[in-house]
Amino acid sequence: QVQLVESGGGLVQAGGSLRLSCAASGSTFSITSMGWYRQAPGKQRELVATLNSGGNSNYADSVKGRFTISRDNAKNTVSLQMNSLKPEDTAVYYCNAVKFGAVNYWGKGTLVTVSS
After folding, report:
1. Strand ranges (DSSP E) for the chain?
2. In the chain, which residues have pLDDT < 70?
3. How far is CA 98 from CA 3, 8, 10, 56, 85, in A?
């Protein structure tokens, strides 16, 4: 099992920045990818950004150029730097880890609220 704990959410004005962090613990060997997803009220959970062990990143079109994902493999942490935030970025952000064999683990989520 892998435990994921997010931190860094909060309330920010439009145009501001926040940094989310996620720490993985437990059986972290063979984690192949870590990333972030979000779920806004009344909407489905969607991908924000992922980063695999090879250093390849993937971003949702809506956040490209504004968000940056980074990972510390030695510490099993993944971070998401969010700049130029918009009200439509308001959501619960979930940390995700994928182990070899496509086994997914999820954090409990952290709320990001962007006021206009």
Report:
1. 2-7, 10-13, 18-26, 31-39, 46-52, 57-59, 67-72, 77-82, 91-99, 103-106, 110-115
2. none
3. 12, 22, 26, 14, 27
* Whole-angstrom distance, CA of residue 58 vs CA of residue 61: 9
Residue 50's CB: how many other CB atoms inside 10 A? 20
- C-alpha 29 chain-centroid distance: 20
**Side-chain-side CA neighbours of residue 48 (13 Å):** 28
Predicted local confidence at residue 73, as pLDDT: 83
**Using CA of residue 110, residue 113, residue 34, residue 73, what is the dihedral sign?**
negative
Q: Which residues pair with 95 in a beta bridge?
A: 36
Chain mean pLDDT for the chain: 95
- Residue 56 CA to residue 10 CA, distance in Å, equals 28
